[in-house]
Amino acid sequence: MIEGTRRTTLNRPRNYLLAAGACGAMALMALPLRPYLDLVNIVMLFLLTVFLVSWRLEQGPAVLAAFLSVALFDFFFVPPHLTFAVTDIQYLLTFAVMLVVALLTGQMTAGLRRQARMARFEEKRTRALYEMARALSGALRLSEVVAILRDFLRDIVQADAVLLIPDAHGELHPQDGTRVPYELRLAAAVYDGDADDRRASKAMDGVCYYPLRGSTRIRGVLAVAPLDDEVLLQEDQPLLEAVASLIAIAVERLHYVDVAQQAEVQMASERLRSSVLSALSHDLRTPLTILVGLADTLSLSRPPLAGKQQVMAEAVRDQSMRISGLVENLLDMARLHAGQVRLRREWQPLEEVVGASLKLLEHALETHPVRVELAPDLPLLEFDAVLIERVLCNLLENAAKYSSAGASVEISARQNGAMVEISVCDSGSGIPSGRQDRIFDMFVRGVPESPTPGVGLGLAICRAIVEAHGGTISAANREPAGACFMFTLPVGNPPEINEESLPPEAAT
Amino acid sequence: MSGLHSRVIVIEDEKQIRSFVCEALEQAGCQVFEAETGAQGLVEAGTRKPDIVILDLGLPDRDGVEVVRDLRSWSSVPVLILSARADETDKIEALDAGADDYLTKPFGIGELLARVRALLRRKSRLAGDGSAIADFGGVTVDMVRRSVTRHGEPIHLTPIEYRLLCALLASEGRVLTHRQLLRDVWGPTHVESNHYLRVFVGHLRQKLEADPAQPRHILTETGVGYRFHL
Q1: Are the Cβ atoms of A289 and B85 closer than 8 angstroms?
Q2: Which end of chain B is more exposed for a tag (fewer CB within 10 A), N or C?
Q3: Where in the sequence is the domain holding A199, given as residue range(s)?
């Protein structure tokens, strides 16, 4: 801050000339009055001059005026006139007192003046800081923050600055193409909190680095460099630190505005997607429900339909049910692909979901004897029962579909290290060689133009579900005939079950 | 088809679904009252003294779950939910609110009639003397003597297993959500411990079912809860 003061008043010879002139003028004015005034009053006039000089000008000219006044007083007014010689020794005391009073007056006035100027200066900066804070609170973009910052620094500290903001990987990037010669290495050190903490780190070339401390973490680095070969003064440090924290608040606020906006956009799009999917599901199910219901009504109508019509009504019903299954698969795939499916994972025995799947497919598995072989010591597994049931149903349905009536289907499960392996095996035609891996892709089937109905979504859904659970799925043929599908589920840390941990009132 | 001789209210906004459901019920001997909206359905339920209410969850005027809650505040009539939504949470909410069973669209008429019959059977049994002895699949439960036998052999059940079995038996023919069972057996502070419930249901099946992996009586409603079938 002293800088401003220095620049306006020091180094000005004009002020010394003015001081000298004022003293000379006073001597000339007082000369004609010499016969009428006492020397004491002449001294007063000179003291007044020194006071005026120190009030209007600076301390240097005031000192000059003090000495000059004494000299002029001696030369023109103390007898003998027009010489520096003094006849009466007591005038030496007058000189001494006059000089001391003049010097002290000068110094005090100058001090007062400086204080007043400092106060004005401080007020200006405080007001500027306040203005900046207000401007920052309205800033909506980082570029506005940068513009406000640079305006402030240019006007108040005669400095320029660059904001370094980290990207997603924590790499700092300048926010504006300024000419501040910052060093990325030093800035990064400040950002990482290495550079001796809480103090701005100062580099050799006069650039200062300030961390932008947000409430949760450092939001970036402010690098300040003086304009035109000046240096940043020690007195400016508190101000610059205050600036840095204002900028930090602004940057943090912008960050949260960003986060909130992103979250809102994401939520809106998720809402839209899930409402589209559920509307689609509803709109497709309603006509299918009507179709199934009407076909059933037909086949139950009285008097009973003739044989052929009865068969047709039942076919309408079965085909509608199949379309419903396909729609279900398509919607599920869409949900799984959109990342819409939130797994409702719960710890549970595998046995239960196996039983539920077999019950659901009772009809399809009517002609296939089913063997269930679950290892007796299987741990509880954490999975989404609805989705794993879907996997089992798809696999069992395939097994029934691709093997002839009477052929057996086996479900088995055993623990293998950190995974539980669940297999569904049939004794049908097996998978054509070379297609074991591709059958899990969407719309890929074992035999492309197979007379068996299907579109090739079931296994793709199985894979998506199993992988969402952290498992894998694979297919293989087995001897002498048939296919085996195996998927795995991670064991994890099953919760302990206290066999009879009854609350007291329940134990009775 | 044997006559059901019951009064049924069908609350469904889709005209064609409503009409085939009503026709099927009428053919089965029921007296059917139709309602297009939840509000209308509640009025019908209040005035017609129904034996069963069939309610679509996706009504235009009110949330189906709310309708169930309203109904339950003054009536214990069995409620069968029709749900077009694949999401289990809606069904669970409706069941927790007091609905008895659900059917997911599309459904066949045979299925619908079977559910209606089961709920009506249950209703008439509750109205009867309420026998203290239950028989299923060779298992006999004597609730007075607290004894369970299977093919004449006594079976030892732990206190929790016995309470669980009683809770299931008491709601035979209904769907019980995990939450309802946990509250009944373990108490209101344990309603989130689903894995406990599953483990103990597994124990019960081991002791009572002929093939625990393919149960015939303690059935799983995946993602929703359990249903006991005599």
Answers
A1: no
A2: N
A3: 154-257
